[in-house]
Amino acid sequence: MIRRLLAVALILVALAGCSRDSGVERIWLEKDVTFDADGLTVHGTYRHLSGDGVGPAALLISESGQTDRNGDNNVAGPIGNMRQLAEFLSERDVATLRYDKIGTGATGLGPFAGRPADIGSAMYTDGARAALRFLAGQAGTDDDRLSVYAVGEGTIHAMSLADDSSPGAPRIHSLGLLQPLPARYLDLITGRIEADVAAAVQAGSKTQQQADSVLAAWRAAVEQIRATGTVPADLPDGLSAIVNSGNVKAVVESDAIDPVDLATGIPADTPVLLTCSDSDGQAPCSQMQPLVTALARTALRFVELSGVNHVLRDDPTDNVAGYARKGPLSPQLTAALDLFVGK
């Protein structure tokens, strides 16, 4: 009896990693890997089929800030959406690499431990570039079916990879831009602050005079940041949590990148999935048209989601406090992915 129970248990463990093809036992493995990105040792998870087969593979790039390979964030908590995306793609027979970008997870700060203020947007792009080359170099990767899927600010780095013409750069077959930044970084922040102070006035927690003062201080800060690369030390209303002397270098580099310009550099006819949501405060569909226009040269599939938050789950409130609430990826998103993955 014990032997029979053990045999059943082993079968269940094996089936837990199988692909959707029930006719063939295909086991998915998750392997901890490391690779070098300009002197930084980057840690990641390579999820792939056992055996010697060759097939499609995708690089997954997480959101900005302290967000690790799984989508977990130091502020919002254990979100796990990137791990779920990797599992979803493996059910569609796509191997994946997800990784801890600099400052997160096992990668940490590395040689920048004593000077974190020196970390800028270019280093995140360098990390993504190294990750893509590592994935392309795996024996199981079909070079003709190499994709990149990214969320939020990660889409900036994904589009940079699609336009990479440096020697040895892998060719990207398709690109998934999930809830991307539709405009320059500081312009997006300004829009969010304007909405927040307007809501505060309507709720009675701020007077119009107080709101105008906050907006004036922020707009002056944006001008200073763009002109001199420095930030005022006395920003009101907690705005120093958004930009300060410790992160102003990264903010300046991020703000200098226009997603619309990057989109125009993506090779023509590249299959691109672009999603937005009416309830996503960071990637609202109402702001996505310039990006859609810029991507018109590609084989674009533009999907407008409803009631989906920025971490790709059904939640019309898009409240950061609820990002770590357990739940599946939005069925609207997975339906869009199902139609796109095989492109």
Instruction: Bin the helical content.
Output: 25-40%
Derived structural class: alpha/beta
What is the overall pLDDT average? 90
Distance between the termini: 49 Å
General form = globular
Total tally of structural domains: 2
Give the biggest sheet: 8 strands, mixed
CATH superfamily of the largest domain: Alpha/Beta hydrolase fold, catalytic domain
Estimate the strand proportion: 15-25%
Number of strands: 8
Instruction: Please tell me how large the radius of gyration is.
Output: 21 Å
Report low-confidence residues grouped into runs of 5 or more: 1-16
Spatial order of the strands in the main sheet? 1-2-4-3-5-6-7-8
CATH level-1 class of the largest domain? Alpha Beta
Task: Please tell me the CATH architecture of the largest domain by its name.
Answer: 3-Layer(aba) Sandwich
Oligomeric composition of the shown chains? single chain
Q: From N to C, what is the helix and strand string?
A: HEEEHEHEHEHHHHEHEH
Q: Indicate the CATH topology of the largest domain.
A: Rossmann fold
- Give the count of helical stretches: 10
